[in-house]
């Protein structure tokens, strides 16, 4: 392919990526951080003798290392000034923000409840197909959802959002020269948004500007309030910890939805995080090929969260601790760079892995991100090491998750 991608640096890889069929839309790893076994003294002695240093861990698992003032796992020693700020925020900001966030969530739940009352949608794979809700119901759910998502970000301290839209090259295809000029002049309607994954806040940002559907754990559909909202978003549910035959079925649903969104302006667009897990925001992990199997154009988006005290990245910190510390931060920042819609060449359509890698290299180049060849399995190893468990014979058997 003769394109600007040839000018980008080639990624260095030390092992081939594992076969993947779908991308993760969830912002939470399903397995808890591994912890040492207190009933096995022999394992503890062996663990202490072979325990790698913090410097070695940070070098090996750089995409998951936190660099903010709260330190490793958000449990570092804080200066007294930071403790004072936390104390003030805990008694002032946190209660107000919890009340505000709860109010927004309940209001949108009630809107969704009204819009879906006395209406039986089609059912796909034992779940309501709210993705294809039409008419006033879709308009109300979408417009109110976008507005309230932005309100929720405001409640969390994201008062300003910096967005950059790169111009489209009208002289030809915006991403490669194998495509035709006619493609570049087509209506810019991608089948999916592909974004780097840094935090659970990523979903709120994307909901506030495009209200997409995304892939989520099946258990999300049963959660109070959030369950109905996720259905109205048109989420595709997957049982990540299961290797049942529906794994392939979910992949098929995702690709159908991507093709439909590309061809039909009224269809909801899919949001996919091809990395499959969150990083600290400085790296880009290998892309899974699920978002690219359909061969439809994709909309690359690069997110960043500048910070001075707490990093909004959800990399190696517990969820509850991160939410509390985030609510204690007076101001948070997010920057979004929207690249031109990427139209794949015929070669990329025939080879989804090539398509995924080319989009990844483009995003890394435009976002000044470092390429890394590790993934979710290594993240679990790093979490386990931080918790003092260095004997994990089964961790690398989970790479195909």
UniProtKB/TrEMBL annotation:
Entry coiled-coil feature ranges: none
GO MF, any single term: O-acyltransferase activity
Any Pfam family: Acyltransferase
Keyword Transmembrane helix: yes
Compositional bias ranges of the Polar residues kind: 11-20
GO biological process: phospholipid biosynthetic process
Transmembrane segments: 98-120, 140-161
Keywords: Acyltransferase, Lipid biosynthesis, Lipid metabolism, Membrane, Phospholipid biosynthesis, Phospholipid metabolism, Transferase, Transmembrane, Transmembrane helix
Domain Phospholipid/glycerol acyltransferase: 191-306
InterPro entries: LPCAT1-like, Plipid/glycerol_acylTrfase
Pathway, per record: Lipid metabolism
GO CC field: membrane
Region (Disordered): 1-55
Keyword Lipid biosynthesis: yes
Main location: membrane
Localization: Membrane
Sequence ranges of Low complexity compositional bias: 41-53
Comp. bias intervals (Basic and acidic residues): 25-34
PANTHER family documented for this protein: LYSOPHOSPHOLIPID ACYLTRANSFERASE LPEAT1, PHOSPHOLIPID ACYLTRANSFERASE
Family of the protein in this entry: Belongs to the 1-acyl-sn-glycerol-3-phosphate acyltransferase family.
Protein name: Phospholipid/glycerol acyltransferase domain-containing protein
Protein's organism: Solanum lycopersicum
